[in-house]
Amino acid sequence: MSDKxxxxxxxxxxxxxxxxxxxxxxxxWRFPYIMGQYGGGAFLLVYLAFxxxxxxxxxxxxxxxxxxxxxxxxxAFVYNRPDRKGWRFLGxxxxxxxxxxxxxxxxxxxxxxxxxxxxxxxxxASLQTSEIGTHFSNFITHPWLPVMYLIIxxxxxxxxxxxxxxxxxxAVSKVLMPVLLVLVLVLCVRSITLPNSSxxxxxxxxxxxxxxSGEGVLAALGQALFSLSVGMGTMIVYGSYIxxxxxxxxxxxxxxxxxxxxxxxxxxxxxxxxxxxxxxxxSGPGLVFQVLPTVFNSMGGIGTVFAVMxxxxxxxxxxxxxxxxxxxxxxxxxxxxxxxxxxxxxIVTLVVLAVGxxxxxxxxxxxxxxxxxxxxxxxxxxxxxxxxxPICAIGTVIFFGWQMKKEDIIDELSNHGAxxxxxxxxxxxxxxxxxxxxxxxxxxTSIYASLFPNN
Length: 455
Ligand code: PFF
Prior knowledge:
The protein is mainly alpha-helical. 77% of the residues lie in helices and 1% in strands.
C-alpha cells in the first residue's frame, strides 16, 4: 500500500494535522491586526458567522470530495463526476493556487525564522524603539538574508514531508499542536497580567460597529477561508487521508472551533500588551514585526524570553500550514506522474524555493521589477487574496452542490448509513445557495475595489 493510500493512522492524528494546516500565520499574524482594524468585537461576530456558516461548510465539502475519491484535487472532482472531465481543470487550479500561496507563505515564514534568531541573540533587544522599523526594512530589503531564511524554513518543511503522511505530517502535528497551545496560553497569561490590560481586552472584544465597513465584512469572509485552509484543495488531500469511520461533521467542527479559538487567543496575547506599553494597535501588517518587538523590549530582560517564545510560536504555526500546502502539490505530482514521493518532494521544493525567492527579493534586489504596476510580492498577494482562492472556492461549492450526486454526499457524510445526519438539509442549502452567492459577492467586490481603489 502506498503512503498516500495509508492516510492518517487515527482520528486524533487527522484532527491535529488539519488543525495544524488551519492554524498558521493567518491566525497569529493576520487575524489580530485585521480584527484591530475593523472594529474588534464587531468584526469577531461577523467572522464567527462566516467561519461556521461558510468556512466549515466548505471544509466538509472538501473532506467529502477527498475521502470519497481517495485522490488529490486533480482527479478528485472527476472521480465524483466521471462524465464531466472538464472539472479536472478546477483541480489543477487548486494545485496552482497552493503553489502561489506557499511561495508567499515561505517568505513571511522566513522573516519569522529570522526574528527567532534576532530575539534569541539579543539583536532585537539591543535596538532603540526608533531603530526597530529600520531594522525590519533593512532585513526585508537585504540582498540575500530573506532568501537564506526562506530556504531554511522550506527545507525543514520538506524534510517533514519526506517522512511521509503518518511518520512525517501526523507525527509532527501531534507534538507541535499541543506545544503551540501551551505557548499561546503562556503569552496570554503574560499579556493579561500586565498593567492596564483591560483596555486591550475591551478594544478586542467590545464591538464597535462604526469601524466595521463593507470592506471589513469582505475581509472577514476572506480571512475565514484563508484561516481554515479551505478553497484551494488542501482539505481535499487531507480529506483523502481521514480514517473511513470518522464523522466528517464532527471533525470539521472541532477543527473550525480550534482554529477560531487560537486566533482569538492570539489577539488576547497581543492587544493587552500592545496597549499596556502604549503602542498603536491598528498598525496593520507591521503589528507583529515592528510593534511587538517594541513591546517585548519594554518588558526588560524577561522580554527576550517572551520574544523568542512568540516568534517560535509563529514559526511552528507557519510550519504545519506550509506542510499542508507542500503536501498538496507533492501528492498531486506523485499521483499524476510516475515520479515517486521522494523525488516529487525534491522537485516541488525546488520550484517553491525558486518562486518564493523571487517573492522574497521583491523589496530588495528585484524592487525595480513591476507586474501590472505592483511589486512582485504585491502581485502575488493580489492573486492570493483577491483572485485564486475565491475562484477555487466558488468552483468547489458549485461542483459539490450542483454536480455531485446528492446520494453520494449523504452516503459519505453518514459513513454509508452508520451515522445520523440531521444537519443535512441546512448544510445542503448553505452549500448550494448561501456559499456560492457570498463568495461571488466577495470575488466581484474585491476585483472592483482593486481595479478602482478610489471609489
Ligand atoms: N490556514 C493557514 C493560516 O491561517 O495561516 C494558511 C493556509 C494553509 C491557507 C494552507 C491555505 C492552505 F491550504
